[in-house]
Amino acid sequence: MRKQVKNNVSWVGYMDWELETFHGDEYSILNGSSQNAYLIEEEKTVLVDTVWLPHRDEFIENLRTEGVLDKIDCIVVNHGEQDHSGTLPALMKEIPGTPIYCTANAVKSLEGQYGKLGWDFHTVKTGDSLDIGNDKKLIFVEMRMLHWPDSMATYMTGDNILFSMDAFGQHFAVEELFNDKADQSLLYKEAMKYFANILNPFAPFVTRKLDEIGKLNLPIDIIAPSHGVIWRKEPMQIVTKYAEWADAYKENQITVAYDTMWEGTAKLAHAIAAEINKQDPETTVKVFNIAKTDKNELMTEVFKSKAIAVGSPTCVNDILTSVAGWLSFLKTLKFKNKKAAAFGCYGWSGESVKILQEKLIEAGFAVTEEHVRSCWNPDEEDYAIIPALAKALLSEEK
Ligand code: FEO
Fold this sequence. Notes:
Blueprint: E1 3-6, E2 9-11, E3 14-16, E4 21-22, E5 27-28, E6 33-35, E7 38-41, E8 45-48, H1 56-65, E9 74-76, H2 82-85, H3 88-94, E10 100-102, H4 104-114, E11 121-123, E12 129-133, E13 136-142, E14 152-156, E15 161-165, H5 184-199, H6 203-215, E16 222-225, H7 236-245, E17 253-258, H8 264-279, E18 284-289, H9 295-304, E19 307-311, H10 321-333, E20 339-346, H11 352-362, E21 366-367, E22 372-375, H12 380-394
Helix pairs in contact: 5-9, 6-7, 8-12
The chain binds MU-OXO-diiron (FEO).
MU-OXO-diiron binds at residues 79, 81, 83-84, 147-148, 166, 226-227.
């Protein structure tokens, strides 16, 4: 089965309604996903990417049933990660000798993962092109670090389609394929989650690449990423969003994230949220128990926030492992231009707040002096600090 994208371009990917996690268990999938592969049938027949290994047989069988398997003149590999290249080894056994167009780094990633199998690689760089007949050509654009060093996008002239790889994608299954057919709020929620959790560490590259693509002056009618919807209605809307998201994005939100042992730190979390709301009802405040919350959903809330408050009790001279792991993830995402405050209860040694502050600084947050360090359970003295902490988080000053 194929689904038409435009003229002689079809989607031949895998709609993954049942996927629950991605990158091992690093990324939660709540609304399905897709691995988008595309077939271009001009004078040359070109396959753009494949699908993940578990769907290998179905993918190849589909190409056979559609009568195109033996017609493929070349394969474009925009990125070597397994969700798009996992089928290549089996596919290349079916159509050995088929030329593969990819970046030099993609040769490294493909040979690194699958071995040196004698594939006919044609390495390309930005501006290189491939004539596919019918007065159309493919123009390659390296997308280094978006999100791997091997990533690239492919632009098809004539139909003005940008096969953008992971960029502009979402883990979101939409059987009808196109952005105008999707639930818009879910689409943007998933697009933002994808950006916050996968692309944000590379935000400066996003900004530079968007400028570079803009300067190429290529008319873009369709953006066809490797996951989720194909942007055909006002496709530049997601480019505009990416420019916004890549620029130290924040909304008028503060997120309180904590874990607790005997509810003392939980009480502080809720008191901080209530005080923020009291001081500024216009600011959205959300509270999450880190140990009980999907980490990727929570990171998306942090992405939207102008400030966060993070709490952990002291446990064996340290913070709770749930919070430690979460802070380690937080650091990798390289959020910018956000404030943070620390709080927590302790019974004996009481190191947690200091450790939280150090880790938040390491993660790039501007940490407020104001903090709450509560012995055993929060008392009046502890609660009396919270208005100043809330004020510091709400303040525009760095
Ligand atoms: Fe969808 Fe980086 O692979």
